[in-house]
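Quick one: structure tokens for this chain, please?
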Amino acid sequence: MPTVQLRTRVDSDLKRKSDSILNGLGLDTGTYVAMALAQLVNRRGLPFAVTESDEDYFANEYGLSAEQMVAAGKRMQAEANREKAAGRLRTINGPDDL
């Protein structure tokens, strides 16, 4: 099958980190890109979920600032701790805990 040369620019730190992971998997960047493109074609879409960050979601959905999100997280954690202490909430680490 004929091939074409694909050229792109990426951040050098990202390339170094990705090369390290790919080498550990026995792959090179070209093979990985070909695999990703094959999955794009097979799935007719991206082979991974594309989502916004939690910070962006809460800012867009609820209009919360970063500081408000941190405060809400602390309140939620405190409430969970109170519920655990009262025996109304338990930690599940695996199927045996169900």
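The mean pLDDT is 89.
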